[in-house]
């Protein structure tokens, strides 16, 4: 017997501590939400790929799942961007046997051309081998809300492979019919019942990661906005890319905190705030301000960790190459490492908090729900090129006005110029694919150079603050040690600032000579 199913799966997952997951299944609030609990069902699944991981490289997951006596073969793709951040392609069929069956009849049902072409290659099927498996129990509830039907599943078990194991302890919400926004509301309710964080990785992605070291940080993807994109679609697209970038690094920092992950997390948050600023004229002001403030709270919660990272890796570390035998510097470095560890601990507490989970779910729900759409008026369906010209002209004017008196600017004004350059750069990156890419890239590169040369000024201000914090906090450091280290670090910072300020007029002149790419 053989059946086929072709659909786009829309789901949202929450990772929950195992001890809390057991409590959730018995929680009265869950029963009120979803009704009586069902009996658990055991699911054992094997994932297949070629020895050189051709499917993983193509962002495909191919599995065979045992459900009682039945065998269900499933192919999943990375996602369906046009359907939103919760969607991914899914094709199922019932088969006989334990290995995937890649016949022409099934492949013809797959409407992802790249996936179909890859799986149709004669050598792919022959080279498939089992890589890892999942073994978990699942309890499923049906939730009906606002005309939508959601399947709520509690999964508990493990992922197993030659390189290790990883626990499965999660709540999976899959939309069977209706509005995807309903998933966010249910997820927020569950996160108020038990500690939970959004899990962006599929079980397949977690299986592939077994035994592999975590990445240092995930960089921003392409915005994919072109001249045919409407303003409404552009705003939603920017939000999706920025949120995906933020969530990937949020998860990375929670699991394996590190310098680049923290940096990229803050970049994602800043870009979302910049998007809200760039589109401010077509968004409901109160709604925009509320999301901006919540994003600022998250970024601020990560700020101390990032400041100590910069102080430690971009100031003390390079300085040590020149004065590595200086006892005072070594003692201050040790004190800075302790302060950095405390800041990381506080940041990770925030990232695992209920407020963090609720905030990001609420922001994503708002961005996807498009309650802001009517406020866009005639801009809503207009070409993003015309809107981008208005935004970029305004931001460029602010940068040029302040930068025209570059040599006369105070430290505070130079800091303000850096912030304005950053906002202009992010907006230019949002919209550059709607214009001539070569010209836009050259403009963004010149602007980034100005921003980088202004960065040492901000580093200097922060470094002085952190040195003061060490003086107040590090009781074990004698005053003479602190004074000597302060003199060495301050002198190093002053030399860097002087170098960048001397080069700044030249760098600014190159940027000012660039013709704005949107004209």
Written description of the protein model:
The chain has helices spanning 18-26, 28-34, 54-57, 104-107, 113-120, 122-127, 181-193, 203-209, 231-255, 259-278, 285-320, 327-351, 354-369, 384-403, 411-431, 437-473, 479-512; strands at 4-15, 41-49, 60-67, 70-77, 87-95, 129-145, 148-161, 164-177, 197-198. Helices cover 56% and strands 18% of the residues. The chain contains 17 helices and nine strands. It folds into two domains: 4-209, Hypothetical Protein Pfu-838710-001 (Beta Barrel), CATH 2.40.320; 231-374 and 381-512, Alpha solenoid (CHAD domain), CATH 1.40.20.10. Strands 1-5-4-3-2-6-7-8 form an eight-stranded antiparallel β-barrel. The model is unreliable at 1-6 (pLDDT under 50). It has 519 residues and is α+β, with helices and mostly antiparallel strands.
């Amino acid at each position: 017997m053989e059946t086929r199913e072709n659909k786009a799966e829309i789901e949202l997952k929450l990772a929950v501590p195992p001890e809390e997951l057991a409590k959730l299944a018995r929680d009265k609030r869950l029963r009120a939400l979803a009704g009586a609990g069902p009996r658990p069902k055991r699911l054992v699944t094997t994932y297949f790929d070629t020895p050189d991981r051709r499917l993983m490289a193509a962002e495909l997951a191919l599995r065979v799942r045992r459900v009682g006596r039945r065998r269900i073969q499933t192919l999943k793709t990375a996602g369906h961007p046009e359907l939103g951040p919760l969607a991914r392609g899914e094709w199922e069929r019932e088969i006989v046997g334990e290995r995937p069956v890649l016949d022409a009849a099934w492949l013809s049902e797959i409407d992802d051309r790249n996936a179909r072409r890859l799986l149709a290659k004669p050598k792919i099927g022959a080279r498939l081998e089992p890589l890892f498996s999942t073994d978990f129990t699942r309890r499923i509830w049906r939730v009906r809300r606002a005309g939508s039907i959601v399947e709520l599943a509690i999964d508990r078990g493990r992922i197993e492979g030659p390189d290790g194991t990883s626990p499965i302890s999660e709540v999976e919400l899959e939309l069977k019919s209706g509005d995807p926004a309903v998933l966010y509301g249910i997820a927020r309710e569950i996160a108020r019942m038990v500690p939970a964080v959004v899990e962006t990785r599929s079980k397949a992605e977690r299986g592939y990661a077994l035994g592999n070291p975590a990445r240092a940080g995930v960089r921003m993807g392409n915005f994919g906005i072109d001249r045919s994109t409407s303003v409404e679609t552009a705003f939603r697209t920017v939000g999706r890319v920025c949120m995906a970038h933020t969530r990937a690094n949020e998860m990375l920092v929670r699991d394996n905190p590190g310098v680049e992950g923290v940096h990229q997390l803050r970049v994602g948050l800043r870009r979302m705030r910049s998007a809200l600023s760039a589109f401010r004229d077509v968004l409901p002001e109160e709604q925009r301000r509320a999301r901006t403030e919540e994003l600022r709270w998250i970024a601020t919660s990560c700020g101390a960790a990032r400041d100590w990272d910069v102080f430690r890796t971009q100031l003390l570390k390079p300085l040590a190459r020149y004065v590595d035998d200086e006892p005072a510097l070594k003692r201050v470095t040790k004190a800075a490492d302790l302060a950095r560890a405390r800041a990381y601990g506080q940041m990770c507490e925030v990232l695992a908090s209920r407020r963090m989970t609720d905030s990001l779910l609420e922001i994503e729900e708002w961005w996807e729900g498009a309650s802001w759409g009517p406020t866009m008026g005639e801009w809503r369906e207009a070409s993003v090129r015309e809107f981008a010209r208005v935004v970029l002209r305004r931001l460029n004017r602010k940068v040029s006005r302040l930068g025209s008196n570059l040599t006369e600017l105070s430290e505070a004004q130079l800091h303000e110029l850096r912030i304005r350059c950053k906002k202009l750069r992010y907006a230019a990156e949002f919209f550059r694919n709607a214009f001539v890419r070569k010209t836009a890239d050259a403009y963004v590169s010149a602007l980034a150079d100005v921003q980088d040369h202004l960065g040492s000024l901000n580093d200097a201000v922060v470094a002085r603050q952190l040195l003061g914090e060490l003086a107040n906090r590090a009781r074990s450091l004698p005053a003479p040690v602190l004074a000597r280290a302060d003199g060495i670090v301050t002198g190093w910072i002053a030399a860097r600032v002087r170098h960048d300020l001397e080069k700044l007029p030249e760098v600014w002149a190159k940027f000012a000579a660039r013709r704005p790419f949107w004209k």
